[in-house]
Write a structure and sequence with these properties.
CATH architecture of the domain at 97-249: 2-Layer Sandwich
Structural class: alpha+beta
Number of strands: 16
Helix content: 25-40%
CATH class of the domain at 97-249: Alpha Beta
Strand content: 15-25%
Bound molecules: adenosine-5'-diphosphate, magnesium ion
Number of helices: 7
Shape: globular
Distance between the termini: 20 Å
Order of helices and strands: EEEEEHEEEEHEEEEHHEEEHHH
């Protein structure tokens, strides 16, 4: 993909997505465009992964459709208001006032959760039983929020700190409850498709254009960038797991000798292709259809 040029006011540019204003919409709306950029350790690599943005968008749309009975989401349309050359990677969404926390849910003990557990026996203030092994399935999923750092790394916080950041304890408790419900629903769906959803991160906002100020699920949802998906057939407790997400690139990045400080190194072609294959595999396993089916629907 060449650089995206969009003839709309740019509202924000993140590591992976650009947000543009959709000025003529009936309510405050954004065009959320997922690029093919990939970041590891919070640094963006100079090499894009072809079609990655379309996988992220296709999977988010899949999950928005599946989870509407649990909580409202920001999606308006994958076609209406979306310029033709961006179809598949862009969505028209409701503009929200985002809550300043990342809503992480963990069903398995891995990543920073495993590190915290080894150091303290708990994760984000949630005490866990002793003697758990790496990648162990937790008795029930836990809510482990983190800060939404403008730059650098997000920091694990407990629900009290999250409530303070959001300024509304009742709202934060609802967010935790909804997050766990979303995770449980998605993990069950994934399990039926031979995939373990180890953990995931949601971002919520408030729709301030509605006088009732409803809580709305925003951002991307349950994608390989915001989640750890493990092929169920390879799962074994007591070690780290191969995964359908960017762990493959992280492993390459670590082995390359990069010290994880920006700038991130370019990615060699075989790793680009391997990564692209994993993203598409994730789409096809989870959505249960060929990736091309999404591309065809989005461009119709
Ligand atoms: N509906 C929405 N309204 C306003 N902001 C949103 C909405 N959905 C997502 N966002 C924000 O847009 C940004 C998405 O871009 P991204 O590249 O993922 O950024 P980041 O590098 O912070 O992860 C995030 O900051 C996210 O909080
Ligand atoms: Mg993001």
């Amino acid at each position: 993909m060449t650089a995206i040029t969009v003839d709309l006011p740019l509202v924000a540019s993140g590591k992976v997505r650009e947000m543009y204003e959709l000025p003529d919409a009936a309510q405050p709306s954004l065009l959320m465009v997922a690029s093919d950029r990939i970041s590891t350790y919070d640094a963006v690599h100079p090499t894009p992964i072809p079609d990655k943005g379309k996988v992220l968008t296709g999977l988010s749309v899949f999950w928005f459709a599946q989870t509407g009975h649990i909580v409202a989401n920001h999606m308006i349309s994958a076609t209406d208001g979306v310029p033709e050359d961006l179809r598949g990677r862009a969505l028209a969404v409701k503009r929200l006032e985002m809550l300043p926390v990342e809503c992480v849910v963990r069903g398995y003990l891995t990543g920073s959760g495993w590190k915290d557990y080894q150091a303290s026996g708990s994760v984000s203030g949630v005490a866990l039983p002793p003697g758990l092994l790496e990648s162990a399935r937790l008795e029930s999923p836990i809510f482990t929020p983190s800060t939404k750092a403008e730059t650098g790394h997000d920091e694990a916080i407990d629900i009290n700190q999250a409530a303070e950041l959001v300024g509304d304890r009742a709202l934060m408790e609802k967010v935790a409850e909804v997050s766990i419900e979303l995770y449980s629903f998605a993990a069950e769906h994934a399990r039926q498709h031979g995939v373990i959803l180890a953990d995931t991160k949601f971002e919520f906002g408030i729709d301030t254009s509605d006088p009732a100020r409803p809580l709305v699920l925003g951002d991307e949802v349950l994608t390989p960038d915001s989640s750890r998906y493990w092929p169920a057939e390879d799962y074994e407790v007591g070690r780290s797991q191969p995964s359908l997400d960017k762990q493959y690139v992280r492993d390459w990045a670590t082995a390359s000798g990069w010290d994880r400080t920006p700038p991130a190194p370019p990615i060699p072609d075989d790793v680009v292709q391997g990564t692209r294959g994993r993203y598409i595999d994730a789409y096809e396993r989870i959505a249960g259809e060929p990736f091309d089916a999404w591309l065809a629907r989005a461009s119709a």
